[in-house]
Specification:
Blueprint (H helix, E strand, L loop, with lengths): L1 H13 L5 E6 L3 E6 L8 E7 L2 E7 L2 H6 L4 E4 L4 E6 L4 E5 L11 H6 L5 E2 L2 E2 H20 L7 E4 L5 H11 L7 E3 L12 H11 E3 L1 H4 L3 E6 L6 H12 L4 E6 L27 H8 L3 E4 L2 H9 L11 H4 L9 H17 L20
Keywords: Glutamine amidotransferase, Transferase
InterPro entries: GATase_2_dom, Ntn_hydrolases_N, PRTase-like, PRTase_dom
Protein name: Glutamine amidotransferase type-2 domain-containing protein
């Protein structure tokens, strides 16, 4: 066991970035490790059995809940956990980072709303995002607010949209029916593929759009292809004006810590202001969440966490080793993969190809 902990510590010293790993050693047990900054989530739970306890590691608490592992806690950043076949648990803090920064995009988009990560309820965080976004909408529209109805883009934005509509005292309606057999579109390669799948994924109900000024609420705007198609669907369904509110600030920079996000040139908000983004996606107005408000919406439920990874919004990469040269290399690899044809993946935890991992 001592040698395993030593090897994991050496790994932490050599590899920089965001990662949460689970491994099985045949005939010995399971191992769980989390990057020193805690960028990616990892949770360990246990379940009582007649002989003692069963143990499980997962990225979200809902996975443990569904299998009866109700006694769980987060693996700490820089910590390693070893569970032997006999049920013995050993935990060791191997690395202590200067700053703990969980990825805030987990709470905005990836995690299920009934999960708890780092002591923070995703559901409560999204309710709080909706309240903060309502304030931002009020500031943006001022006295000229002419919104008739609030409609969420299913599914991750529903909670925030509901809270926003309540605070603004504007009726909430479900205007889109969702086909659950189509994957997440922002990770799909090729603009035409994404546009086609948006139409297959969502169907607008004219009853909720016709003759109305609608405020569409979504978790974020990445490439803008999906948002543009959704806005056009609302117009085709008879909407007079289509406003668009994002629970996240403008995404202007790529994620290098485990989310397969587009290059800078593919991000609709990169080198564009809010008005230019609205024009690009065909909205009458776009309202983005303020970054400080987003951070506070999540942090308020666990003040111990002082900061989050917000690099996609502010270009601050906590590992301190990301520069333009690295970005160009990363984009070169991605473009090469796009040329060869990348695999479509429908997953809540989408990782970068092995060639994307960065070693110091």
């Amino acid at each position: 066991m001592k040698h395993i902990f030593t090897a994991i510590k050496d790994l932490h010293l050599q590899v920089k970035g965001g990662y949460a790993c689970v491994a099985m050693v045949a005939g010995y047990g399971i191992i769980g490790i989390r990057d020193p900054h805690g960028i990616r989530p990892l949770i360990m739970g246990r379940r009582k059995n007649p002989a003692g306890y069963d143990y499980m590691l997962a990225s979200e608490s809902i996975v443990l809940d569904s299998l009866g592992f109700t006694d769980y806690e987060d693996v700490k950043p820089g910590e390693a956990v070893i569970v032997t076949q006999g049920g013995n648990v050993s935990r060791r803090q191997l690395i202590v980072a200067d700053k703990i920064t969980p990825c805030i995009f987990e709470y905005v988009y990836f995690a299920r709303q009934d999960s708890i990560m780092d002591g923070i309820s995703v559901y409560k965080a999204r309710l709080s995002m909706g309240e903060a976004l309502a304030d931002q909408v009020t500031r943006s529209f001022g006295k000229d607010m002419d919104i008739d109805v609030v409609i969420p883009v299913p599914d991750t934005s529903r909670v925030a949209a509901l809270q926003l509509s309540r605070k603004l005292n504007i009726v909430y309606r479900e205007g889109f029916n969702k086909n659950r057999y189509v994957g997440r579109t922002f990770i799909m390669p090729g603009q035409q593929t994404r546009r086609q799948n948006v139409r297959r994924k969502l169907n607008a109900m004219a009853l909720e759009f016709h003759g109305k000024n609608v405020l569409l609420v979504d978790d974020s705007i990445v490439r803008g292809t999906t948002s543009k198609e959704i806005i056009q669907m609302a117009r085709d369904a008879g909407a007079k004006k289509v406003y668009f509110a994002s629970c996240a600030p403008p995404i202007r920079y790529p994620n290098v810590y485990g989310i397969d996000m587009p290059t800078r040139q593919e991000l609709v908000a990169h080198n564009r202001n809010v008005e230019q983004v609205a024009e690009e996606i065909g909205a009458d107005k776009v309202v983005f969440q303020d970054l400080d408000d987003l951070i506070q919406s999540v942090r308020r439920f666990n003040p111990v966490i002082e900061a989050f990874d917000t690099s996609v919004f502010d270009q601050y990469y906590v590992t301190g080793d990301i520069d333009d040269k690295y970005m160009e290399k990363l984009e070169g690899v991605r473009n090469e993969d796009d040329t060869k044809g990348r695999l479509n993946i429908d997953s809540d935890s989408v990782g970068l190809p092995n060639s994307f991992f960065h070693k110091q």
